[in-house]
Amino acid sequence: MKYAIVTGTSRGLGEDIARLLLEHGVHVIGISRSPSQALVNVAQKNHSTYTQLHGDLGNINELEQMNTQLKEYLLHRSITELYLVNNAAVVQPVNQANQIAANNLSYHFHVNAIAPMALTNSLIDYANNNGIPMIGLTVTSGAAERPTYGWSAYCSSKASINMYTRTVALEQEQLGSKNKIVAFSPGIMDTEMQESIRSSSKDEFADIERFVAFKQNNQLRSTKNVAAILVELILEKNQIENGKIYNIGDFL
């Protein structure tokens, strides 16, 4: 049976990814701070299962607990293929770098970088120990390659994800494993993160007017359309290029 772990499933892209995987008959373990009865219903209709793990990825103790729970849960399942989609992320703090407090910076990196890395590391270990091929995908951003005023934290955390992806993929290739580790940049989508960005001040985020225009001009992509492309990518595992940073533009 196929199992997928998806973070940030309570809404937006994460919820749509989980829904599509369930519709493909994949059993999904969702990690978020809020439950989703809608995904439970989708699972029942498609003879699959949706299991919810509650926790804050920005809290290292809760992250370690979730990692333990995941391994215990998977241990008792008959798994043929394993997927991990690290989708959960935050954009805050948005401000000039010298105005960002250390505790806010720490939380940001725990959610955007440490949690995806820790989950991927743990599941690679599980997959290798149990002879299961694993596909690990982390949602990244064009901000990883492009400095943006007010986004020193966000640009840096996503850049770290890209290099982590390339490095771990290199390791898995040289170790001769069947695991594939990639990242996926979805472009600008109509999400709560975009709402948060548009609520910034001009002093905090110099590009605020451009992002307001994205919404006004209907330039934001639907999370459902992006999720469809992402899910098709990971389910076609033989077509995946290990270590690649995919961009939504590659598929449009």
From TrEMBL:
InterPro entries: Biopterin_syn/organic_redct, NAD(P)-bd_dom_sf, Sc_DH/Rdtase_CS, SDR_fam. Signal peptide: none annotated. One of its GO terms (cellular component) is cytoplasm. GO terms for biological process: tetrahydrobiopterin biosynthetic process. It is found in: Cytoplasm. The keyword Cytoplasm applies. GO terms for molecular function: sepiapterin reductase (NADP+) activity. It holds the Pfam family adh_short. The keyword DNA damage does not apply. PANTHER family: SEPIAPTERIN REDUCTASE (PTHR44085). Belongs to the short-chain dehydrogenases/reductases (SDR) family. This is (S)-benzoin forming benzil reductase. It comes from Virgibacillus salarius.
